[in-house]
Amino acid sequence: MKSLVIAEKPSVAADLAKALGKIPKKGDHYENDEYVISYALGHLVELEMPEDIDKKKYGFWRLETLPIVPEKVGL
Q: Rounded distance, CA 56 to CA 60, Å?
């Protein structure tokens, strides 16, 4: 079974391919018997913004609300 590795950008995919044993490029991805390495263009996920947690409390930055440490980090 092959492992799929998704990199942040093309240059990181190339670096991973080198680090994992000079995996050859096939079209727009890298592949051998063990790995398929591809990449995304842009962020796949981002952290939830404070105002998304509580608009009333964190809608505007105030010194008294810092630090903002959520009970659960949302994506």
A: 8
In angstroms and rounded to an integer, the radius of gyration of the C-alpha atoms of the chain is: 19
How far apart CA 32 and CA 24 sit, in angstroms, is: 7
Largest CA distance in the chain: 55
Joined tokens for residue 13:
């995919």
- Cα separation, 58 vs 51, whole angstroms: 5
pLDDT by residue (tens digit) across 14-71? 999 999 999 999 999 999 999 999 999 877 788 888 888 888 888 888 898 888 888 8
Domain range annotation of the chain: 3-39, 45-75
- Any bridge partners for residue 13, and if so which? none
Phi, psi of 29, rounded to the nearest 5 degrees: -145, 175
